[in-house]
Design a protein that fits this description.
With 121 residues, this protein is an alpha/beta fold. The protein is built from 3 helices and 4 strands, in the order βαββαβα. The chain has a single domain, classed as Glycogen Phosphorylase B (Rossmann fold). Helix content is 38%, strand content 14%. Strands 3-2-1-4 form a 4-stranded parallel β-sheet.
C-alpha cells in the first residue's frame, strides 16, 4: 500500500455494523493494509478496540419520528456530514470506501460519488 492511502471502512455506530467492519479491518491489517474507520459519535466508545489507524466521526442522523420537521432535521444533519466527509476525504484520499450500513455510512459514501466534492481520484 502507498503511504497515506488507506481503505476506509464506513459503518454505523452499533455493533451490528461495527463488528463486521472490525473483522474486515483485522484481516486487512494482517495483510499490511492501512485501514481507517468512518462512523458517527456513537462508535467512538469502541475506538480503542477497533483495529484501525484512525477513526473519523461524521455527523449523521436517522429520520425517526413522524413529521416533515424531523425528516428535514435529519436531512440537514446528513448534509452537514457529507460536507465534512468531502473535506476530510480530500485529505485522506482513500483507495476505496467500503460501507457496512447505517446512516453514518451515508456521508463518506456520498462524498465519493463522482463530481460530488470533486475528489478527482
Amino acid at each position: 500500500m502507498t503511504a497515506g492511502r488507506c481503505i476506509l471502512l464506513a459503518a454505523g455506530g452499533t455493533g451490528g455494523h461495527l463488528f463486521p467492519a472490525a473483522a474486515l479491518a483485522a484481516a486487512l491489517t494482517k495483510r499490511g493494509a492501512e485501514v481507517e474507520l468512518a462512523t458517527d459519535d456513537r462508535a467512538l466508545k469502541f475506538g480503542q478496540d477497533f483495529p484501525a489507524r484512525a477513526i473519523h466521526a461524521f455527523p449523521s442522523a436517522t429520520p425517526t419520528g413522524a413529521g416533515a420537521l424531523n425528516k428535514a432535521r435529519a436531512a440537514a444533519t446528513l448534509g452537514t456530514g457529507v460536507v465534512a466527509a468531502v473535506l476530510k476525504l480530500r485529505t485522506i484520499r482513500p483507495h476505496v470506501v467500503v460501507g457496512f450500513g447505517g446512516y453514518p455510512t451515508v456521508p463518506p459514501a456520498a462524498s465519493r460519488i463522482r463530481g460530488f466534492g470533486s475528489m478527482g481520484v
